[in-house]
Write a structure and sequence with these properties.
transmembrane helix; 9 helices; alpha+beta; signal; BatD; about 600 residues; membrane; five-stranded antiparallel beta sheet
Length: about 600
């Protein structure tokens, strides 16, 4: 029995050791479906410490926090449990379905990868508010509003959408970025230029605010029923007051990145009434006038004239077709030229559209251009109206007589059309002077180019000698080469940080990573060995001056503290230059 008991205990120990030896490295997200105004947390967890952690490229997201590192150790029933986590906080840049690719890490010489994760980003959603969060203060003091002129228009009736950003005087906006533009599905849309708009004072929900008009759009609904206007979403960098005060008693400001949305708007579009709708109604809605004008009423055969059909006024001018003219067969008619002179403002389209027909009479006689009619829906009276043009008579004085029309007016194919002369210059002028070019062969031998190419190698010899001497002098300058090499090394490691200048969190994350990578390459140490005492002792062993060591450690501390304190672009530039100088000095002094 004792033997069986010992074997059982041994098996349990072996099973526990095998289970604990299994390495796990996985990615976990807070949610797989989120709105564009929400944040996503992703954790990369491992049950054994590793090195060379490489996160995926968050190309469709903005890293607003992290990487934050946490380590936990626990003992349960004599079994040690270890967990190390790298956490990132992400803000989506746009809507769509995205894949967060694999992260990698090296554990015990083996490379482990996480599984890809699919994320769906939708339009902005309503988020719960936390009154203890700085974001709550921002959400209560900044509002993006979409003002719609009419929520129940007729089909093809113009409505306007004006987007205004209201900001409380107690907070300051540093910048904003449009991350999601509204898509006006089922609308004809036209954006109105808002450049040069100034900040105005106004009220919102009974409180004083400053506001700025960000966007204006004119919409013409193309379908009936309930249509959705998608929200405009902005990512805004702002400063809100905190409960802390400086030594002078002034409130300290906290930097916050806030995503605001104008919210969805639903438009209920009414169909045009069927009662009284003309048979020839082409969809015109507004207030219009009809003009039919002939450029000539008296002319000779084979001369051309224009008939212009124009509709002008205020309405959906670009969204319907003009009525066609009907002319006698003895008039040759060409395809019309369409012209639009339309301006779009907050009241909708205003101007005129026209079709110009070129007409050429073939025979002598009088030709009537019948009247045409045009119908439209008048929004003021909410009824259909019809416009009718006057008949125009064209008198062709001189030209052949259409005898066929006298005998057989029902058969227009018997008519004999005259040739239309479009240009009076029927005979081209014969040139009496010509520009002849000599065909004599030019030989390359003994030309200036020939002698230049022949002497060029001899002239290049002194230049090559000078270049070679300069290269030899530079190669002999050991100290200068070392300085240049160190400066090149600093630029290599700090290139990513330089690209992020102006973006506080991204800059200091890149700067800290660059400093760690430099020490790993220069001192041949691993990431988990980079404590400040370890760095100091290793650099002293390499005979680096104490002042340079202190500068390096101070920069690392700045990277840690800068994420939680307000930093301007000037301070970032100073930290970047100090880091470049320190890396160069370490590379020069290290033995």
């Amino acid at each position: 029995m004792k033997l069986i008991k010992h074997i059982s205990i041994l098996l349990l120990i072996l099973t526990a050791s095998i289970t604990s030896a299994q390495v796990k490295f996985e990615a976990k997200v807070s949610k797989q479906k989120l709105g564009i105004n929400e944040r996503l947390r992703i954790d990369f967890e491992m049950n054994k410490d590793g090195d060379n952690f490489n996160p995926p490229n968050f190309s469709n997201f903005t890293v607003v926090g992290g990487p934050n590192q946490s380590v936990s150790n626990s003992w349960i029933n004599g079994v040690r449990t270890y967990k190390k986590t790298y956490s990132y906080f992400l803000a989506p840049k746009k809507r769509g379905n995205f894949t967060i690719k694999q992260a990698t890490i090296v554990i015990d010489g083996e490379t482990y990868k996480t599984l890809p994760i699919n994320i769906q980003v939708t339009a902005a959603v309503d988020k719960p508010k936390d009154p203890n969060d700085a974001n709550y203060i921002a959400s209560e003091n900044i509002h993006l509003v979409a003002e719609v002129s009419k929520t129940n228009p007729y089909l093809n009736e113009a409505i306007t959408v004006v987007y205004k950003l209201y900001v409380s005087p107690t907070i300051a906006v540093d910048s904003w970025n449009e991350i999601d533009s509204p898509r006006y599905n089922d609308f004809w849309s036209q954006n109105i230029n808002t450049q040069g708009q100034k900040v105005q004072n106004g009220t919102f929900k009974g409180k004083d605010y400053r506001f700025l008009v960000l966007r204006k759009a004119v919409l013409y609904p193309q379908k009936t029923g309930k249509l959705n206007i998608e929200p405009l979403s902005l990512d805004i960098a702002l400063r809100v007051p905190s409960n802390r005060r400086d030594i002078f008693g002034s409130l300290l400001m906290t930097r916050v990145n806030k995503t605001v949305s104008a919210g969805n708007k639903t438009i209920n579009v009414k169909p045009l009434p069927d009662a009284g709708k003309p048979v020839d109604f082409a969809g015109a809605v507004g207030d219009f006038k009809l003009d039919v004008i002939a450029s000539k009423k008296v002319l000779d055969a084979s001369e051309s004239f224009q008939v212009k059909v124009a509709v002008k006024g205020n309405g959906n001018l670009k969204l319907f077709k003009l009525p066609k003219i009907s002319l006698p067969s003895s008039l040759e008619v060409y395809e019309p030229e369409h012209e639009e002179q339309v301006k779009t403002n907050l009241s909708g389209m205003r101007g005129s559209i026209s079709d110009s027909y070129t007409v050429v009479p073939q025979f002598k006689g009088k030709y009537p251009i019948p009247s045409i009619s045009f119908s439209y829906f008048d929004l003021k009276t909410e009824s259909y109206k019809r416009l009718t043009s006057d008949e125009i008579v064209i008198d062709v004085l001189n030209g052949p007589t259409n005898s066929a029309s006298d005998t057989s007016s029902d058969n227009p194919s018997n008519s004999v059309k005259q040739r239309v002369v479009l240009n009076n210059d029927q005979f081209a002028f014969i040139k009496t002077k010509t520009n002849f070019i000599s065909t004599k062969t030019n030989y390359f031998f003994k030309t200036n180019l020939f002698w230049s190419l022949l002497l060029l190698p001899f002239l290049a010899i002194p230049l090559a000698i000078v270049v070679r001497k300069k290269k030899a002098t530079r190669d002999a300058d050991v100290y200068g080469n070392r300085i240049r090499k160190a400066d090149k090394l600093a630029k290599k490691y700090l290139s990513s940080a330089k690209k992020s200048l102006g973006k506080k969190e991204a800059f200091y994350i890149a700067l800290e990573k660059a400093l760690h990578n430099y020490l790993k390459a220069r001192l041949h140490i691993e990431t988990n060995d980079l404590s400040k005492d370890k760095i100091s002792s290793l650099l002293k062993e390499k005979q680096v001056d104490d002042g340079v060591i202190n500068d390096f450690i101070a920069i690392v501390q700045n990277c840690e503290l800068a994420r939680y304190t307000p930093i301007d672009i000037v301070t970032m530039q100073e930290d970047y230059e100090k880091a470049a100088k320190t890396i160069s000095l370490i590379d020069k002094q290290a033995r």
